[in-house]
Amino acid sequence: MRLRKSASLFITLFLTIGAVISFFPIYLAIINSLKTQGEMFASFTALPTKLHFENYAHAFEQINLLGSTINSVIVSVIGIGGIIFCAALAGYKLSRTSGRLSAAIFSLFIASMLVPFHSIMIPLTRMAKNLHVSGSTYGLALIYIGLGVNMAIFLYHGFVKSIPRELEEAARIDGCGEFQTFFRIIFPLLLPITVTIAILDFLWIWNDFLLPLLMLTDSTKYTLILSTNTLFGEYNKEWSLILAALVLTALPVIIIYGFFQKFIMQGIAEGAIKG
Amino acid sequence: MPVNRYKHVVSLLAFVAPAFIIYSLFLLIPTIGGMYYSFTDWNGLNRDYSFIGLGNFVEALREDPDFVNSLLFTLKYVLFMIVLQNVFALVLAVFIETKTRTKGFFRTIFFMPNMISTIISAFMWTFVFSQVLPQLAEKTAISVLDQLWIGDPKVSFYSIIIVSLWNGVGYMMIIYLAALQGVPQSLKEAAVIDGASPFQTFRKVTLPMITHAVTICFFLTLNGAFKVFEVVYGLTGGGPGRSTQVITMNIYEEAFSNNFRYGYASAKSVILFIIILLFTFIQIGVMKRKEVEA
């Protein structure tokens, strides 16, 4: 579409202002995390004269960065792995099976996608306590699997339709059992949608706040987000420390974003359009 | 063929079992449990509790001004978000789409805030609102900046909206961008040859081609906005007083921090569920009809 020069200029201006606003809080957090408290209150917008990394050292300890990052990694890896394993099996089979039972199970999974988390959080905390999974990183990961499979099943269910049935028949003739056929032939072919699901679930689990808040009580089990949250309550006025912690928490995702941008955006677009 | 049929069912269940068991434990049973508790006066601790019918629902809607206020506050928030989030996301997507050379750059920048956890975003903005903007206002004498951004209930509503948009617009923008890429260039060119202005082309050609994305983005915004929690929790904590308390926060307080009235809080969460369902069905119903028209 050809645009007039003035229109094109307006668009550039609009986008530039938008980009500045978009980046502004991140920029402020970064520059101020490198200043002393005094330097900061003199001017929040000025660049630091000398880089004060001691805020980071302090924050690193206060939020138990290493430990809580490991916790977040454990929860994410087990959560995502479990969702993919369970949902791929179920989504594939439900998609390939016709009949009332299969349709009923699928509908049940899909209908529950509408249930807001806040409607189940009370009985869920009870259930977690009864099953002795609350208070542990592994338990938390299990709950994520339970909450995440329905969406993943939905996406797999749709994707499986694009895989020709002849492949399974061929495998069967060659003597593969059902599970063998699935793991050897089908699962590798599901890779594109598996990547999409992994990305969507990673963003969800890594950044989630409320569920860890409800489930974890022991601070050594805290996820990264939860650790940073406690800091905010305890060190209310120590902005340089808090900002350093915020940057430390946000940085890993932004770095990951830098590397996997293309996949992330594609994943979101696909997840939305198929969902 | 009863044997064959039996084998069929067993194989189906074998594949579905892992997902179904874990889903039942952490989603299906809690959903049913929550609905059941909503009719009881359970306090979460006692073994014995009684069934009180619709008592909790009546109390929530009739005798609990805090709950009703949080409900109205949330509705106002939902309305603002649906309009603003989609307008901004669509405008950004359309504008970015016209810029072939800088497309990647702007897309990256606008989406970046979405990567940051909502609660962390809220904390970053708390810093901006409570520290940076007042100082900027003092130094530059721009009076608009001089607000009690999170201290004055009238203003803090907009602060909450600003942070939500900052965090969420990028996501919707990606969906709109993907939809825009699906609009055939030849159609737009044909419209231009027929003498349509860029705005007319957008209105008559592009927009009808992306109504599917509009429906999805409205659905996502509506669902997300009713469930807003982190932004408000991080920014105002629901205050001052209870002036910015959203419905999810009201439920959370009722169950976990104030009274431990699990049954009553469950009833409130069932009300939230029903409201979301109702709004979703209306929205999808209305917009699907529009899609067919186009």
Could you walk me through the main structural features you see in this protein, from its secondary elements to its overall organization?
The complex is a heterodimer of chains A (275) and B (294). With 275 residues, chain A is mainly alpha-helical. Chain A has 13 helices and no strands. In chain A, helix 4 runs antiparallel to helix 10 and helix 8 crosses helix 9. Chain B is an all-alpha fold and 294 residues long. Chain B contains twelve helices and no strands. Chain B has helices spanning 2-37, 55-62, 65-98, 103-115, 118-140, 153-181, 185-193, 198-209, 211-226, 230-235, 247-257, 262-293. At the A-B interface, helix 1, helix 4, helix 5, helix 6 and helix 7 of A face helix 1, helix 3, helix 4, helix 5 and helix 6 of B.
Total strand count of chain B, please? 0
SSE topology string of chain A = HHHHHHHHHHHHH
Find the biggest chain interface. A-B, 94 and 95 residues
Rg of chain B, rounded, reads 24 Å
List the helices and strands and how they pair.
The complex is a heterodimer of chains A (275) and B (294).
Chain A: H1 5-33, H2 37-42, H3 54-62, H4 65-96, H5 100-111, H6 117-130, H7 137-160, H8 166-173, H9 178-189, H10 191-207, H11 210-215, H12 224-234, H13 239-274
Helix pairs in contact in A: 1-13, 3-13, 4-7, 4-10, 4-12, 7-10, 8-9, 10-13, 12-13
Chain B: H1 2-37, H2 55-62, H3 65-98, H4 103-115, H5 118-140, H6 153-181, H7 185-193, H8 198-209, H9 211-226, H10 230-235, H11 247-257, H12 262-293
What are the salient characteristics of this protein?
heterodimer, A: 275 residues, mainly alpha, 79% helix, B: 294 residues, globular
Could you write a compact summary of the structure shown?
With 275 residues, chain A is an all-alpha fold. Chain A is built from 13 helices and no strands. The relative contact order of chain A is 0.14.
